[in-house]
Each structure stands twice: as structure tokens, then as C-alpha cells.
Design a protein that fits this description.
By secondary structure, this protein is an alpha/beta fold. Helices cover 45% and strands 16% of the residues. The two termini are 23 Å apart.
Length: 280
């Protein structure tokens, strides 16, 4: 386990447990890893860097401690920051208040890392913002006993960070998605597995993290050209027709198959030797 020198943050731990793998831990266990604005800005900066870091090919995201991945928004901190509070003494014009709030909401949107594979480990309390973050990941793994919920209707609003946009595409079951979003009820890892929200459930957090790190190491050992291309084409397929995606794949691979990685992978299959791929 080594630290990554370019990733020093106040609210997150970023380490490298194996070559080309980063482990990001939300590090506020005394507050159930709940988020406030400064944390959110750090979170965005971390994943913007990871997405273009040639030393990182796969990322595991978890929460510090055993109690929570994240309990969502730190309501106490949020009460004293942002335009919701600031606008109380500002302009009374509705359009200007709405514009400030819209800018604030946009700031909190999650940009899913385009080029890096992200494996999210859900454990303990995983509410609200936890789902927003998880649906941005490529792969989700849960620990037994995880408490999952889209909680926003219970605090008087529609989820606005990404759950309502991404969860229907992740799960593909409109009835179930509307049920959990409209009732804000808690659902279990077993239910999440049954509907396809997570792909694995493990007995505890440690086992789930170990499974995620093992998977990340496996992915990181493969051609980064092939892995990034596979992620890009799958994400394109999610939002386009089959014919559009086939055309996009043809254009993409017309360049990518010219890579040395393709030749190395073919040769490795013939010689039964594990290939080593250059950084991107």
C-alpha cells in the first residue's frame, strides 16, 4: 500500500494498493462520511485527476470506518452554506434566487470519470448521495447489512445530483425505481442484487473491499486501450441505438486496433505469457 503524492486531501484518503490501482476512501467516519461543500469540491477534483492519470487504470471507492459508505448530505453544515442560506438576505427577485440555486446544484453534479474504471463498495449506511455516487460507478459491490435508500423525498425535494437520471438506466426496472424513489424506503443488498443495482454481495465490508481491489487489479493488468474503449462503447450503447453504436464502434476501433496492445495481446495468447502494456 503506497500513497499517491499528487492526491493530498483533507477529507479523503487516496492510496495505491497495487500497480495502476487507486483506492479512494471518504474519510469522515465520525460523521458517517456525510458530505459538505468543501468535501464535494475535493471529491470532484480527485476524480478529475484520476480520470487522466496514466498511473491509474482502475479505482476502488469506499468509506472509512465500518458504519457508513456515506449518510449523504451533512445537513448541519449545509444549513450554513450555499445560496439557500445566503439568498435569505439577498435579492427578493425569484429569477435571481433561482439562478443562484441552479448554479449551486450544477456545482454538485457528479461527472462520471470517463476514462477510468470505478468500482464502488457500498457498506453500512448508504443513503441519498450514496446512491448518486454509486450510479456513476462502473461496478457496484455491496456488503451484507448495507442500508440503501434514495432519501430525497423525505427531505422535501426531488433528487437532483444524478440518481433520477442514472438509476433507471442502471437497473432497467421502471416500477422498482419509482417505488424506491417515491417511498424513500430502505432496500437491502440482496434486493439490490436481484434488480441488478449491484453485481456482488459479500459478508462484510472487508470482504467487499478485498473483492473490489482484486477486481481492480485484474482490470488494471489488461490493455488500457482495450479497457477504456470497452467502457466508452458500453456507455455509448446505453444512450444510443444499436445501429448508432455499431457505427461508433467501427470508427473507434479503426484507430484502436492499430495499437501495439492488440499485437501484444494476440502474441500473449499464443505464447501463454502475461503481456505488459505501456501507460496511456
Amino acid at each position: 500500500m503506497t500513497s499517491l503524492p499528487n492526491y493530498k486531501y483533507g477529507h479523503f484518503l487516496v492510496t495505491s494498493p497495487s500497480p495502476f490501482v487507486a483506492h479512494v476512501e471518504i474519510n469522515q467516519p465520525h460523521k458517517l462520511n456525510s458530505f459538505h461543500r468543501d468535501m464535494w469540491l475535493e471529491f470532484g477534483d480527485i476524480f478529475a485527476k484520476l480520470s487522466h492519470d496514466p498511473e491509474v487504470r482502475a479505482v476502488v471507492l469506499s468509506g472509512s470506518g465500518d458504519r457508513a459508505f456515506t449518510a449523504g448530505l451533512d445537513v448541519k453544515a449545509a444549513a450554513g452554506e450555499g445560496p439557500i442560506t445566503a439568498s435569505e438576505g439577498g435579492s427578493e427577485d425569484i429569477a435571481r434566487k433561482a439562478t443562484n440555486l441552479r448554479r449551486y446544484i450544477y456545482e454538485f453534479r457528479i461527472a462520471s470519470p470517463r476514462w477510468t474504471t470505478v468500482i464502488c463498495i457500498l457498506h453500512g449506511v448508504s443513503l441519498g448521495l450514496a446512491i448518486d455516487i454509486a450510479v456513476c460507478a462502473d461496478i457496484r459491490i455491496a456488503a451484507e447489512g448495507t442500508q440503501l435508500a434514495v432519501k430525497e423525498v423525505d427531505v422535501g425535494l426531488a433528487a437532483d445530483i444524478g440518481s433520477l437520471a442514472r438509476l433507471p438506466k442502471v437497473v432497467g426496472n421502471s416500477s422498482w425505481v419509482k417505488e424506491v424513489c417515491l417511498t424513500a424506503r430502505t432496500f437491502s443488498p440482496q434486493e439490490a442484487l436481484a434488480v441488478g443495482f449491484v453485481s456482488q454481495v459479500h459478508p462484510n465490508k472487508q470482504a467487499a473491499v478485498e473483492a473490489g481491489l482484486k477486481m481492480a487489479a485484474s482490470i488494471a493488468g489488461k490493455s488500457p486501450v482495450a479497457v477504456q474503449g470497452t467502457k466508452e462503447i458500453l456507455n455509448h450503447a446505453r444512450d444510443h441505438s444499436i445501429e448508432e453504436n455499431l457505427r461508433y464502434t467501427a470508427v473507434w476501433n479503426s484507430a484502436m486496433v492499430l495499437s501495439d496492445d492488440f499485437k501484444k495481446a494476440i502474441l500473449a495468447g499464443l505464447t501463454k505469457k502475461k503481456p505488459t502494456f505501456e501507460k496511456l
